[in-house]
């Protein structure tokens, strides 16, 4: 078996896991989903799910990873629960699907960095999006994005993932704070905030249950849950320390960045009188491109924005690739280099349809979020809650002071409420599609 690596520092692990969480989901999905789905009402449902369902499942993944020190599929064998291996298999499958279209969007981001510098989208932002989002350009830049991500994964856990995350995640935070600060100075900022977050009283209670599938899908996606990223990352942990602590930090960073992204984006749009649009994969690019085209220093602001988005996307993308590469290197006798190259090419091929027709991209996104991630999370809750409760609790409490009551609450949440919520979400999420 291939020698396993570990994180060099605790900060490195936390930044890498936060880097996985912070991504296109925070900037490309969250603000528009929130604005469309009833503003503050959606936000409340989302926050409750992140804390009540997301955090317990992050901890469940951490526990499996740290205790097994193995990839997402091998972990179940190492824990003596080989029968549950299929959960890891589903997770790896979800990773294939997600990364295949995630890297297509990553390719758009690269094109928008270049276009912000050259001014390519200023004359007709909608037409520009059409020309880059599907077809030869989309495929070429998808490949470029994937090559960049694979280049980091090839370098390994410490020299690749940890080093990249340590540089990129703080940079993303700084750039987004600057952008949101700049947004606050614009005329129209207040209107933007109102559009983003004002509670739509009519939807607050009536549609609370209807909001649940979308809010849960986003909570899973944004925390990189249900597909083994957190299992894999925690499997590189050496020392014992409080997993709860790390989980909380990741949750706070991810949620803050999602909120921050909206606080930057909506003032930009409203200051230029740009219609935020009706959602869909192109909105953040077309609407923002329109705003940046009209700003005094719009192209400079746009460049900064898309560079931040690129770094956020890269740190998420390599976490997904790592899940599968870890499995391949530990299961078959292959080195990291050929494994990474092979997996990256396979995922790229799977993503080609989504770079040809956006309807595929939306379909992949829905399949991944409403079905695969939620299903993976559901199985994980059943596994840890019912089949691995005693050992799981012991592992959670390792490195934590006290924690008796906490462990009991955690198991109870996994056993019943989370299982019920996820069954509901899965049922209605599938019906809605
Ligand atoms: N959490 C990432 C984001 O918000 C997406 C992601 C999903 C990454 C699943 C890894 C696994 O963009
Ligand atoms: Na996220």
UniProtKB/TrEMBL annotation:
The membrane-topology field of this record reads: Multi-pass membrane protein
* Any single Pfam family the record assigns to this protein: SNF
Would the keyword Transmembrane helix be found if you checked this record's keyword annotation?
yes
- Record localization: Membrane
Top-level taxon: Archaea
Which coarse location class describes where this protein primarily resides? membrane
Gene Ontology terms, cellular component aspect?
membrane
InterPro entries cross-referenced by the UniProt entry = Na/ntran_symport, SNS_sf, YocR/YhdH-like
List all membrane-crossing ranges: 7-28, 40-65, 86-114, 134-157, 169-196, 216-236, 248-270, 304-327, 339-358, 370-389, 409-433
Give the protein family: Belongs to the sodium:neurotransmitter symporter (SNF) (TC 2.A.22) family.
Q: What is this protein called?
A: Transporter
